[in-house]
Amino acid sequence: MAKHSANARHARDGNRPNKPGAGDTDSTSAGSEGFAGGLASVGGHLADRRRFLGYLLAAPTVVAAAQLGGSLLGSQSAGAAQPVPSNPQVADNYDLSDAIYDAAKPTSDLITVQVHSDGTVSHEMVRTEVGQGVQTAIAMLIAEEMDIPIEKVNVTHAPARPELVWNQLTGGSTAIGSQFTPVRVAAAIAKGRLLDAAAAKWDLAKSELTAHAGRVLRPSGQALSFGELAEAAAVTENKKVSTELKPDSDFKVIGKPQRRVDAMDIVTGQKEFATDMEMPDALPTMVCRPPTINGTVKSVNNADEVQNMPGVTDVATITTGVAVRAKTFGQCVDAIHALDVSWNGGPVEGTSDTSIEKELKDAHPPWVIPGTPGTKAFEREYTFAFTNNAPLEPATAIADVKEDSAEIWAAAKLPITAQGEIASLLGLPATAVTFNVVGSGGSFGRRLFNDGPLDAAEASQKMGKPVRLMWHRADEYRHGRGRPMQVSKIRAFHDGEVVHSLENRYTSVFTDFGHGFGDLMAQYYTSVNPDTPLATNPGSALALSQTIFELTAVWPYSMGPTKQLLMEVRQPTESTGTEHNLTTFNTTAMRQVYNPNVVAAQELFVDELANEMGRDRYEFRREFAKDDKFREVIEKVAEAGNWGRSLPDGVAQGIGVHEEYKQHAACLVEVDCRPETVNRKIPGGTTGPRVLRVVFVSTVARHLVNPLGAEAQLQGGIMDGISLAQTNSLHLKDGAFLEGSYDDFRYTRQWNVPTDVQVILLPEDSEAEVGGFGEVGVAPTCAAVACAIGAARGSYPNYLPISHNAGIPFEVKPHDPPIPQSPTNGLEHYPAPAKASEETSLNP
Amino acid sequence: MPEHSFTVNGRQVTVDIEDDVRMLWVLRDVLGVTGPKYGCGINVCKACTSHYNGRAFNPCSVPVSKIGPDDEITTIEGLADTAPGEDLHPMQEAWLEHDVAQCGYCQPGQIMAAVDLVKKVHAEGRDLTDADIDTNMRNVCRCGTYYRIRQAMKDGAERMKGMKKGG
């Protein structure tokens, strides 16, 4: 297991002042929570001095809900003053997480915790488990606050609940942070009510009772289980109550490594994803998609013939192609191969990597910061290829659409949006659509969009039957979503000693943030920052993108006046809202949105600038670090990674630095670029440089709910970073992506995994209560790997991944028919598929 | 329609289905055995990895007609029964110990592939190495749990040495 410093953290927390009334004098943020209803509220953030409002809800057993409200305004922190201070950036003080947290607060009283007569506690979470471990973390919060074993806590997904407005959104690494207080408040109220019920039963004062391991104990040692008290604790009318939360120093669950609550189901094959659900009439359904991106059906020339194929029950044209329903998915594949469809071209027909790169470079706005006398300009430009979210579970959904109602089962990070879009597509009121949320086999931004559920709903409606719809893998690469091509152009003026100014012009193909997210940002961010593009240009897709960029871009070095600006090309001509109408590439906010590329460009530039100025790449970063937290993580990663140690020629170190989701992070890697390594052969695999070692350092916010889960998320993010620097991209040619399988797409595989990965979490007296680890691993690692490769080769890459322009090392699968047929020789070919048995690897 | 008989997780089954339907769909869509997952359908991602007469294979790339009445298919659901006792298979235990899974979608295939690779190297009378994992574990994990997979495999390999019969 990789090392982390969680134990040190516990020891430190254990020494925190904790007596009632003892102030937490090291607290620096003021009024980080607001309160409604006129009950006691105090400034400062020590939980044991705060009271929270909530409700007991009328139900057969006790049900409690939380209430939070008010505004969150982070305290202002001054920027460091050396060497040449940079101007504060928006995301220094208020970032994307804050906007999402604020949006969740007004409806936090609508989440509940229920105690059942069997002694279990249940909670329908309003976040989606996509692998990030939110289900486990929320179960931990409830177990902690209620003093009940985590095995007795059942956390499931709530269906789409429109009354939650913006509080049913999973994204931006905010799931645990947004639920940290509301879930605990609801749990604390439920526990308080159980204590009330026991006190009444025994005719004792509540203060004489304690809760432990799911039971209420009286001083004599006699006990009543939560289950025995559940009915007595119930109320017949909704009732407003207040509660205190457990003080930090009493935490026995929060902050301790906790294995995943769904692990047993996973390792025994019992965990259910959408297509695993038992629903006998919902037959397998797939869509025959156009050869070019967002092409449309002109005519289906042999529907009757295909309809009569073995197993096939239905053929129906839908918005995105021709849907076929059959007894098995294999017969859907056969039907797609047999279909004769005439297509209309899509809106990006004729485009290619080179044409889009040119569009992006032509769109760079001019520089605005002039050089000063005695300074020299240093300028670089970096291109980042199209990529794809590629969760292993493709887009899937079960849909059962009837004349006046519809029921859907699918993964979604914005279930309310899904419900609304489906209702609109079907011509039904939203109230007639039940959207059941199912945990997903990965997301990385994919489930912000409801392409699978929309296809399923439309197919079910047209066929008049329930469907179990699934995208083929090739569909995901060619018609799914991801981060589009981006170009980062950076210019600094320096005098050889210090850097006087820094400008970053960032151009991207339009990134779709989806229906609804812009409204959230408009409502919760523009009031905080009336100068933001979204406020000055409401309703503009570019303004929304620029605002999100502004909320996540942090140049970590003091380099004088600093300006980072996003420009987009190929925006849709109209909103991509409820019409299922895409007019450009299919994109989404992929894991860490812009920052894997923004930070890779930043760190490549800093490496090259340090070399230009004749400075050690680590010392340069340390000296120019914008504040002490950046300096701390840079120093720590260099120390743990043994910066500058002697390495063979062709092996080098690289560092990447970033701040996001309330955490400062730095990554140090060692990459082997020696020919014998780069040219090692794996049948059908791209090998290339090998990352030998990764040291990743991150600060943590005041609370780290599950150190084991945080470490897992960072380890996963590290693999993404390695992929994005080395191998992982889509090639665009003639308006279509060439990749059709994981061997083509080249996400990290075991042969490129480092055998030494060390994650170090640094306890902090952070202003932020809870951070988020789902994404922050990606960008610093991608940057560090790119830098190390540059250093090892003595020549820095200006295009990532480095493999992208080294040729197409795979046979491109046909685009018509749009998906490959399954092989039949699987018994003879394991583990490498037949095609890969020959050496096809082509290394950069 | 042709009938096909074989054993799945110790249970003899007969299915009525066309000869060319791949085993992944026979397992999932006909028999309701959903542990093996779809990730690509072309023998690349390895999410469906299961065992055919005790050795790993990818059912997405094998037509049902190639499976005979004496053949035994083991999926993740039946893996524990191939180990002695009532407990999980030692590799499953190792997966729990190291808290490998994130989304969990690829993990049934990872575990089935890991068991097969360890059996192979043990049959060769040697210990599992990182090089073995590099070359043979092609299973995609898009969550990037690869590092913990390595740890769990090495742990699981040690645990498997204690098994009395082959798993």
TrEMBL record, chain A:
Residues 1-30, 813-844 are annotated as: Disordered. One of its GO terms (molecular function) is oxidoreductase activity. SMART domains: Ald_Xan_dh_C. Residues 268-347 form the Aldehyde oxidase/xanthine dehydrogenase a/b hammerhead domain. PANTHER family: ALDEHYDE DEHYDROGENASE, BLL3820 PROTEIN. This is Xanthine dehydrogenase family protein molybdopterin-binding subunit. It comes from Haloechinothrix aidingensis. The lineage of its organism: Bacteria, Bacillati, Actinomycetota, Actinomycetes, Pseudonocardiales.
From TrEMBL, chain B:
Residues 75-154 form the [2Fe-2S]-binding domain. Residues 6-52 form the 2Fe-2S ferredoxin-type domain. One of its GO terms (molecular function) is oxidoreductase activity, acting on the aldehyde or oxo group of donors. Transmembrane segments: none annotated. InterPro entries: 2Fe-2S-bd, 2Fe-2S-bd_dom_sf, 2Fe-2S_ferredoxin-like_sf, 2Fe-2S_ferredoxin-type, Aldehyde_Oxdr_Iron-Sulfur, Beta-grasp_dom_sf. This is (2Fe-2S)-binding protein. The lineage of its organism: Bacteria, Bacillati, Actinomycetota, Actinomycetes, Pseudonocardiales.
